[in-house]
Amino acid sequence: MTAPLPASFRADVRLRADDLRARRVPFVVATVVRAERPTSAKPGDAALVLGDGTIVGFVGGECAEASVQLHALNVLRTGEPVLLRITPDGPDDSTTGAGRSPGVTTVHNPCLSGGTLEIFLAPENPPPLVLVHGDGPIARAVVRMAEALGYATSGTDGFPEGAVAVVVASHGRGEAVVLREALTSGVGYIGLVASRRRGDSVLTALDLAEDEKVRVRTPAGLDIGARTPEEVALSILAEIVATRPRLLSAPSPPETEEAGAGAVSSAVDPVCGMTVAAVDATLQFEVDGRRFFFCGSGCRNAFAADPGMFVGR
Length: 313
Fold this sequence. Notes:
Number of strands: 16
Number of helices: 8
Strand content: 15-25%
Largest sheet: 7 strands, mixed
Distance between the termini: 26 Å
Shape: elongated
């Protein structure tokens, strides 16, 4: 479940986080904020949880990690941070929601050695990406304004995945190639900076199907009477905001019927009864084509020694 790290856990976790941000990979930062003995984790220990359930770092033993993994995947889905309280005693409000405080989830973990952990789970989804083709005054104004609004920006040297918008403001240079790539990649907003007459001419020359033509907004931007490059950029960014999907985030993890609509796929450890994430990164064992998932190696080994003792009980 956990990827091995070199000597300095915390430094390596920070470096890995920087790398993930640079590559626009969504993840959750799990930080131990409180630990009641006996626990192996200490305040300040941290780990990253990736979208496939992989954990990089250290926030406690296998059983604590299993709870962190499941709830971090939910945090990645919702985009809302959570304070996760993992305790061997008391009620579990993680499934019923009973007694839950806003932003706090308490998990009953029967496998803990006796201590209690409080771990803050903070999602880090990459900012929405706007590709800007061109280097003129309008293109530069779009880049400045987009970044001020919290978007990431990129030129079109290569066509990175995950763009929410493409703005073509090159005044005729390389427009056709970029527009075709944007249409093929399924970008939600495609804007061509041109007069209505020239824009129609560009789209006609591309020999697009009618449903493709209507996806290219030209002249790009809302009609606000813009005159300066900055005003044109404002009109374009306003149109992007107005037409974007309501949720610009990572795709939801897979769902199962048992988990319920919109929830992270989960399973019950057949040995200890803990709810764990049903993902490839979780410890598992297969019997007659059926996969069983476990909180840690102890439960998995007990199950593997005699599956009949636990299956169907």
